[in-house]
Fold this protein.
Amino acid sequence: MADEENLPPGWEKRMSRSSGRIYYFNHCQNRSQWERPAGDGRGEPEKVRCSHLLVKHNQSRRPSSWREQNITRTKDEALELIQKYIEQVKSGQEMFESLAFQFSDCSSAKNGGDLGLFGRGQMQKPFEDASFALKVGDMSGPVFTDSGVHIILRTG
C-alpha cells in the first residue's frame, strides 16, 4: 500500500476481511480505526491544553514570584510540597485548580494554573514532553524544569 511510509509511527494500513474496507491499525496501542490517522508524523496532536502548579526553589532560574519576593526553599522542600499537593488531589481532598490558584508560583495561578493551548517548542523540554505524554484528564508526577518543580494536568 503506497502511502505506508507517510503514516505516523506505529500505524499500518490493513484490509478488513469481513468488509473489504481499508482500516488503520496501531500496533503500539493495539487499536484500530477506519479513518487515516492524523498528526505530524509522531501520532500526536499539534497542540495540547494543560494547567500546572509550579513550586519554585532557590535554584530556579528566577527564584521569585507573585507570591514571594525571594524564594529560599530548597529543591527538596519544593519536591515535598509538590508531592503533598499530588496526594491531596489524588485523595479528592483538594481540586487541582484550587491548589494552583492558592500555591502556584506561576502567574497562571490566577486562572487556576490554566496555560491554554500550546504546541511543541513553546515550553521547556521536560514540561513539553510530560504534557504531550499525558492523556486528557491525567495528572503528572513531579516534573523538573529550570523554573522549578511542576504538577501538570492535561485538560485538552
Notes: The chain is about 20% helix and 25% strand.
